[in-house]
Amino acid sequence: MATRKKAVTPPPTKLFVLDTNVLMHDPTSLFRFEEHDLFVPIMTLEELDNNKKGMSEVARNARQASRSMDEVVSACEAHIEAGIPLSEPSRGLASGRLFLQTQAIDVVLPASVPTAKADNQILAVVMFLKEQRADRHVILVSKDINMRIKARALGLEAQDYFNDKVLEDTDLLYTGMRELPDDFWETHGRNMESWKEAGRACYRVRGPLSNELYLNELVYQEGEKPLYAIVKKKDGPVAQLESLIDYTHQKNNVWGIVARNREQNFALNLLMNPDIDFVSLLGQAGTGKTLLTLAAGLTQVLETKRYAEIIMTRVTVPVGEDIGFLPGTEEEKMAPWMGALEDNLDVLNGSPEDGGGYGGEWGRAATRDLIRTRIKVKSLNFMRGRTFINKFLIIDEAQNLTSKQMKTLITRAGPGTKVVCLGNIAQIDTPYLTEGSSGLTYVVDRFKGWEHSGHITLQRGERSRLADYAADAL
Q: CATH 3.40.50.300 occupies which residues in the chain?
């Protein structure tokens, strides 16, 4: 006798209540919740209105969020109370509905929670929805940690906005290099081809690891005959490896600088390669990111004349208290933020102990003046609309940029320009940015495998034994 199968009812979709900071962080967040429904309280709209004035990134995002919501609401012909379908305005990205608060909500919050505060009024809305819509899973979405803690203290469900996160765990972030197994040549040596090209050894290998390799990934194998190579071409199970220039040797020095470890050697190979237009260097303080990049930039600007000049920019986020407005031109205002540039130029110019470089103290001063004419320091605030042609563009402290700001900067690159992003994702000073959602993490993940980009994570500090110990112990 055939048994009758019980119909399985699909679980109801969730109802997400959006805090203002989610919309100001990502104006497109309305379309990022797939099949789930969204609820926007009146207080969220009020806070968007209060933050829309000004030229900051937050103000721009607030205006963009308001415009997106206006497009969604104005396109709706039915009653707003029933929810506005998001499938059409989101072009199929979201299939849920948008609910706006259309009635006054009277919820008694605990006596210890002041009702005048905007955050607490949003919490009151979440409490009301939880009581009224017992059939729905009501969740508050906020980038504000304290808001989430308060919600949980009141017995409400709350979570962070995860859609901007490139990776949940930054340990999984692409490092740009890979150690080849000991049996690599045994497992990949069948039908191997090898030849010399422009003084470099090239190998065409086939095997199971070839599928996993990325273009411009740096591979190495230590031992009696060490191998340091880059993945030059890749075609399915076939990969072409090309040996690297040894920048640890003094004869290959770059503006007097030699690589002190394997990762620095890899970094200089990427920085000096004319076929690579985008390089990202990650690493903690003292790993040599800025020094290597400036040395490579000066060599290619002043010696080989590959680029016209170096342009250096960084996010002006103070670590301590802000010191107020700074006097002078754009370059003079940026000078206090460019201490790293000054320190590294002192190293590259030669120290007074060794006679001040070529020509003693006079030669050192002349070299410094020549270098000054070829390095421009620019503020991020004036980058929109610019195009850099034949420039060596360095973006320092890139971990403090959002993915949107990073896109704005990298798309400034015109013909013949090389962009280098430097940063340490463990030192983020921008509010609401985490290691997983930083613009630097975003570009490392999105650019991996492109034939004109390269990335390396520098491991070892080379600043001093004190700095190395402090980085580990503190």
A: 250-473
Distance CA 300, CA 310 (A): 9
CATH architecture, domain defined by 14-159: 3-Layer(aba) Sandwich (3.40)
What does pTM read for this prediction?
0.73
Q: How far apart are CA 26 and CA 45, in angstroms?
A: 15
CATH 3.40.50.1010 spans which residues of the chain? 14-159
pLDDT in tens, 12-32: 788 999 898 888 888 888 888
The domain 250-473 having CATH identifier 3.40.630.30: the answer here is no
Strand partners, 278: 419, 453
Q: What whole-number percentage of the chain has pLDDT above 70?
A: 85
Q: What is the DSSP string of 141-196?
A: E-S-HHHHHHHHHTT-EEE---TT-S-S-GGGS--SEEEPPTTHHHHH-TT-EEEE
What SS3 state is found at 139? strand
| pLDDT tens, position by position, 173-229 | 889 999 998 888 888 878 889 999 888 899 999 888 888 899 999 999 988 888 999
The sign of the CA dihedral 334, 335, 337, 338 is positive
Residues 101-121 have pLDDT tens digits of 877 777 677 766 776 788 888
Beta strands 227-235 and 193-197: pairing type?
unpaired
Q: Which contiguous run of DSSP H or E holds residue 232?
A: strand 227-235
Please name the amino acid found at residue 115: T
